Amino acid sequence: MILPYIIKSAMALALLYVCIIPLLEKETFHRLNRILILGCLIMSFAIPLVHFTGGTNPTVDMVRQAVQLPEVLINGDAKEQSVWSWADIMTCIYIIGVVAIFTMTVVQTVRLTRQLRQCEHITDNRGNTIVLTDCATSPLCLFHYIVMSRDDYANNRSYILTHEQEHIRLRHYIDLIILQCAIIVQWFNPFVWLIGKNLKAIHEFEVDEAVLNKGINATQYQQFLVIKAVGNRLQPFANNLNKESLKRRIIMMNQKRSNRWMMLKALFIIPVATLAVSVFANMQTQQSATKAYEVVEVMPKFKGGESAMMEFLMMNMKYPQTAVKANQQGRAIVGFVVRKDGTVSDVHITKSAGHAVLDEEAMRVVKSMPAWEPGKQKGKPVDVKYNVPITFRLI
User: Fold this and answer.
1) Mean pLDDT over residues 168-174, rounded?
2) Pairing relation of β-strands 145-149 and 140-142?
3) Domains of the chain: residue spans and CATH
4) Which of 32, 139, 187, 281 could disulfide-link to 148, CB 3.0 to 4.6 Å?
5) Across 54-63, 264-273, 332-341, which has the greatest mean pLDDT?
6) At what angle do helices 86-117 and 2-24 cross, to 10 degrees?
7) What average pLDDT does the structure give for the chain?
8) Mind listing the pLDDT tens digit for each residue in 286-330?
9) Parallel, antiparallel, or unpaired for β 120-123 and 375-377?
10) Tens-digit pLDDT profile for residues 40-88
11) Residues 310, 289, 295: CA angle, nearest 5 degrees
12) Closest listed residue to residue 341, CA positions, set 289, 378, 309, 380
């Protein structure tokens, strides 16, 4: 299901953000901070996709065929009118949000593109396209387009072109595309919006540093930023002058460069990423390497016999409603071990039904079985392997 993946991804991003971003956001390592933020975004989507198996490998005895119990048949009514579960409702709300944000992004981009086509175009000395508008607008760059008013082109061309050309040279538009994709997928997660705010601020820090390194007077440049910071456009892929981060930008421009040793704080991402993987990755635990017999002198016995065990499984097994709605059927073989104390352990899927939801239901009920009478070999209780086939069929 998509919902568990999205939730894990959102929680992974929250963990990465809380643990890593505050460490370096006040330092002057703008390129490193940019890489870390993009890394957090990408890792948050990759971590839930990681699959690894924990535990030790089974012994040779565990690999051999276990005793197979009679087949359990679980019938489901394909015509049954199912009620939406909370998971269905949440999934529906999530999809509506994704569609809404995606549609808003497309509409804003198309609207701006149409507006730009109607304006005068000039090519600058770096091959970028300068778009001149008749209305007063805050300068911005969109991919390889630099948008400014005719008045700015006549009076403030040097500052604006230097600033926006640096955005393009540093390929900040690629970051914004990645960010907008993350926002569309995780629109409900406040941390994706916070990380976006940090990323855009870092873009401005990086550009301001590059502009000042070209020899432009810092005081005059800062005065220009104050004058032009008239508001923030809602264009998803545009870098623009805005007043929201202006105070931070001026502070950062006047701040003494951080000691390079402070960059070592970035290594903290390694244990945090490891923690995120251990918490949010998909883990599949192998059965333990305990020696288990196939056949013993006195076989384990479910209290009441095989018929009682079959009745227990059939009474407690529920055909998953999601499988009914998706018309999913199949035959799963569940393996398990009856321990010396009669408890059931090492429950695993020997053969999948072809649908995870059916496999999970089969394992859930087998795990819930009460204690058996343990098997014995030479008068001593021992572990014994079993398999039980469970067929899910819609009628």
Assistant:
1) 92
2) antiparallel
3) 2-49+86-114+151-279 (no CATH), 57-82+290-394 (3.30.2420.10)
4) 139
5) 332-341
6) 60
7) 83
8) 444 457 888 888 889 998 888 898 889 888 888 888 888 888 889
9) unpaired
10) 999 999 988 886 655 444 433 333 456 666 677 776 666 554 556 677 7
11) 45
12) 380
Task: Look up residue 323 and give its two tokens.
Answer: 């499988």
Q: Which residues contact 44 (CB under 8 A, 6 or more apart)?
A: 9, 10, 12, 13, 16, 182, 186, 276
Q: What is the pLDDT of residue 284?
A: 52
Phi, psi of 124 (to 5 degrees): -85, -175
d(CA 206, CA 208): 6
Contact yes or no for 361/43 (Cβ under 8 A): no
pLDDT at 235: 58
Helical residues (DSSP H) of the chain, grouped into ranges: 2-24, 30-46, 60-63, 86-117, 150-155, 157-169, 172-185, 190-213, 218-228, 246-254, 269-280, 306-316, 321-325, 356-367
The DSSP 8-state label assigned to residue 284 in this structure reads: E
Could you read off the pLDDT of 129-159 as tens digits, one per residue? 999 988 877 788 888 999 988 988 888 888 8
Residue 165 in tokens = 């050309």
Tokens coding 170 = 């540093």
Q: How far apart are CA 7 and CA 189, in angstroms?
A: 9
Q: What's phi and psi for 258, nearest 5 deg? A: -70, 150
CA dihedral 313, 317, 323, 324 (to 10 degrees): 110
Mapping DSSP to helix (H, G, I), strand (E, B) and coil, where does residue 236 land? coil
pLDDT at 91 over 50: yes
